[in-house]
Every structure is written in structure tokens, then in C-alpha cells.
Write a structure and sequence with these properties.
alpha/beta; Aspartate Aminotransferase, domain 1; Aspartate Aminotransferase, domain 2; five-stranded mixed sheet; 41% helix; disordered C terminus
Length: 477
Amino acid sequence: MKKKRSWAEPYKIKMVEHIALPDYEQRLKYIEEAAYNTFLLRSKDVYIDLLTDSGTSAMSDRQWARLMIGDEAYAGSKDFYQLEETVRQYYGYSYVVPTHQGRAAEHIISKILIKAGDFVPGNMYFTTTRLHQELAGGTFVDVIVDQAHDPDSDYPFKGNVDLQKLESLILEQGADHIPYFSIATTVNMAGGQPISLANLRAVRALSRKYGIPIVHDMTRVAENAYMIQQQEPGYAHKSIAEIVREICDLTDAATMSAKKDPLVNIGGFLALNDADLFEEARNLVVVYEGLHTYGGMAGRDMGALAVGIEESVSDEHMKARVGQVQYLGNQLLSAGIPIVKPIGTHGVFLNAARFLPHVPQDHFPAQALAAELYVDSAVRAMERGIVSAGRNKQTGEHNYPKLELVRLTIPRRVYTQSHMDVVAESVERVYDNRDRILGLTMTFEPRYLRFFQARFEKIRAEANAQRSARKREPVAN
């Protein structure tokens, strides 16, 4: 019988950044000072940082070299034209408007296309995307398949659009009140889940039938392409680059946070095929970001981004990137830890509702779990549940999502398999002592995107007992 050969990452390490593990008393102090919000921790106090994969990747030697020859001309930088050529080559869009990051592109396209009273259907919301749509006067409508809201479902393409939901919305509201379909590859809030090409082609057919464009959130498009290659019939022998181009060719415009797939620490762009929309976007970028040939980016960063796009569609790179995520996910599954299934592409998502079934959702179980994980090991994760979901803009009440998750987000080319082992062991320890976690109350809430800056305090055992007693009291007639 042939012995299975070991596999290694397709790179070697040239530089290291030293990290330190704070002791237990320090960790208790730091999380209390951060008001139990991992976003408010200082990075120097974090041992393994899985808060986000946004802007936290390790750049390659080619990218670092490209920084050294950046053209910082205010107008007409050669790096802009290289970026434009690279976007056209790998993604196929005709026009590029550089921005400082993806949310700036979301702001510009929302401002151009959405009018008050419009409805924007999409395959599950993302926080900044939905906010820009709402600020422009629109209402986001979730048309993702039902399996996406079930963390235990093994459905391989949870990013798919429910075509019946989408067409029903069009018929109910009228195509004139739907400025575009908002389609993400992959779906972050569902656990990094991909959309299939078969489903995207069906969405494209509806787009053409009703004359509604598709705006593509392409921040992790190469990761989505990898999942198509691995799981969708007919794509096993196609390259990541070929599948990425096929995805993009089914859409009309795209917002890119280049801090994810393209392996840079800052940057993004809005990509378009329509010349008139491009002219409008080029005018607005001057107002909000900078001149149309740099947007919110330095020339050197545009150069590194162009190189990063090319590297991101490498089959070997993507195998290593998603493979590390799957390694951690399988470690946790083997230990009986409840996570979102199937394992996604950019992180492992702990199912906080099942992890802490005794903590009600309005006591922020995912937030409490992320804080407890830091206390155990100085591993920083983030909440993706009721705090991230925000409030209903009509009633002011909490939105109660079906998914209450903690995201262990893995930066690209940063950590080793040993780091993943440390994370898995820490999650197991917290799970073994989960009954001690009682939840949190929110003491400060910012107006927008509250998960970034909200502050919390621990619910004590006495307060929890009083709450349970109140629940048992009979209701007066």
C-alpha cells in the first residue's frame, strides 16, 4: 500500500515578528479594560490574532520589492495603470476606481445606484455593505438559501441564492425599485460559504430577464473559486484563475476589499463595465477618496496589490490557504466542538448558540465566548451574532439572527500548524468549562457598526439568578 506523502506550504519564511503570551492575570486585566470587546484589545497583548483576515496577510518578497519602486505621482501614477491592467487580465472588468478599502467602494456604488425606497436583495448581509445601502435609502433583503442559516447543514454551497425568494421580491416590489443584486463570493456571515457557478448563472438569467445588474462583492472570490474547483461537477480540472474569471464575467460591477484575497494590508477598488457608471464613480472618488488615479491608495500599495492579485489566483497558494482553515476546523470537529459546517474558506466559525445553550441571545453569547477564549489563551477571535446584526431601523430592537457565531479568522501566510494546534486546544478547554460563562450586558453602544466599539460587562452569578427568578414569576393579569 502506497504511503501518503506529507504536504507543506508553498513558501518559506524570510522574516519573523516576535509575539508574547501575557500571563493569566494580565489577560483578565486586559479583557476587562477592553470592556469584553476583542476589538478594543491592543495587539501587543494578543498572542495569536484571529480577529480578522482583513489587512493581516503576510506579503511576498515580490510584493515588498514592488513597494520600493512605487510611483507616488499625484496624477497618472504608473502603478494605477498596472493595477488597471491586472484587474482587466484576471477579473475582466473594463474600468477601475481605486479606493482606500472595500467599504469606500460600497459607499460609492450605493450612492450612485440606490434611491430612497429601493430594495437590495443579496445572499446574506455583510455589516458595512448593508449599512451603506441603508444610508443611501435602501433596504437589504436576504434571499440566501435556507441552509445558510443552519450551522449543522452540510450543504456545500450555502452562499447560493434562493431563486424563488429573489424572483418573488422582484415581482412584489417591481424591478424599478431594485437597483441591483448584491452577490458575495464567499458569504462571510454564513461562515465563509461559497456560491456555485450553476447558481450564479441562474441569478444572471434573472438579472437579464428583469434588466437588473449584479454587483459582486469579490473580496474572497479566489477562495470561492477554490471551493467550486473542489466541489462543483465539471470544474476539477480548471484552474483557480479560470474559475475566478468565469465568476466575474457573470457580473456587471464589483467592490473589492483588497485586504483579503489580494494579500495587501490596505486598499481596494470599485470595478465596472458600464462607461457611464464609471464616469459617475470617477467623479465621486475625487470627492470622497482622492484623484481617480490613486483614490485612497499610495502608488506603492497599488503596485503591491497588482502583484497580490496575481498571487491570489495560484492553485498552490489557495490549497495552502484554505487547507490551513480546514485543518483547524477538523481539529475542532474531532474534539466534538460545535462549529458551522461545512468548514468555510477564511475561518472556522464556532456555533456559540450550541456552545453556550444556557446563555440567552440578548446576553450576547458569542461576544462572551470570544472574551473567554482570550482569557484562556490570549487568542483573539470576534463575534458574528446579535451584536454584529445591530438593531432594526424601524423598531430600534435588536436584530436576532439565526446564527450566533464566533469567528476564528486565519490571516494568509502568517501562522503555522502549531499555532492552529494551540487555538484548537484553547477552544477545547473553554468548551470543557463552558458552564461558567454567564453572558454579558452592553454598557455602551455606538450609532453605527456597534460591534467595533461597543462595551460590555460581565453578568454575575447573582444577577443571573435574579433574572431566572423573574422569569419564573407569574405574570399579573
